Amino acid sequence: MTAHPAKALAATALLAMALTSCAQQVPGTPVALMGGAPQDSKTAPSNPGGESDDLASLDPCDLLSETTKSALHVDGAPEPRKYSHVKACGWTVHDDPLVPSGYHLGIAVYPEKGIDDAVATDGVLTPVQVGRHRGVQYFGAGKSVCSIALEVTATSRIDISGSGNDDAGRCPAAERAARLIEPDLP
Predict the structure, then answer these.
(1) What's the distance, CA 163 to chain centroid?
(2) Of residues 6 and 115, which shows the higher confidence score?
(3) In terms of residue numbers, what domain contains 165?
(4) CA angle, corner 73, sides to 19 and 160, nearest 5?
(5) Has this prediction a pTM greater than 0.85?
(6) Which among 13, 31, 157, 176 is least surrounded, fewest beta carbons within 10 Å?
(7) What is the spatial distance between Cα 63 and Cα 35, in angstroms, rounded to a whole number?
(8) What is the per-residue pLDDT for 2?
């Protein structure tokens, strides 16, 4: 059997992201805007109601349209993963000028874990606003994964993550993906 180091790194990063994103929130730092207008932090979740049930049936591999894949330079097939509390999907990206060395793009759906449940390796959850969704940016897996967790309800979220060897490119890649995916989220 031939070893595939890129796939092994991607799978490890996706698993680490899924497993490190489920505890208590640590207070963050100032709000960073990533598109859209800021919302008052006292505003109700962006989509109150039964969206958590919708998230339970949502396939994260379906969240990237062909147009979005092209804009993100995704060149690999989706790699679905299912864990007890999260469904995730990952893609390999090689030809992205933002991250010339390549990276792994991951999307994880947490139907029963809100942004307050995200766990940061360094204990820092930075509040962000992406379009109409409130969220947090954080590092997982020993800072090898940069994630943007977007709130769907107070108790559900979708994480968009960039992982790989390029420290400078991980977060901008995750932020760009979050901006492109966000308009289609519940």
Answers:
(1) 10
(2) 115
(3) 5-184
(4) 25
(5) no
(6) 31
(7) 19
(8) 46
Sole residue written with tokens 């207070």: 27
What 3-state class would DSSP assign to 13?
Answer: helix
* Residues recorded for the chain: 186
CA 93 – CA 25 distance, rounded (Å): 30
According to DSSP, the residues that pair with 163 across neighbouring strands are 104, 145
Cβ-Cβ contacts under 8 Å for 115 (sequence gap 6 or more):
25, 125, 134, 135, 136, 149, 150, 151, 157
pLDDT per residue over 145-169, tens digit each? 999 999 999 999 999 999 988 888 8
Three-class secondary structure of residue 7 per DSSP: helix
Q: How confident is the model at residue 7 (pLDDT cuts 50, 70, 90)?
A: very low
- Backbone φ, ψ for residue 163 (5° rounding): -140, 150
What is the DSSP code (8-state) at residue 177? Answer: H
The total of structural domains in the chain comes to 1
3-state secondary structure 81-146: EECCCCEEEEEEECCECCECCCEEEEEEEECCCCHHHCCCCCCCCEEEEECCEEEEEEEECCCCEE
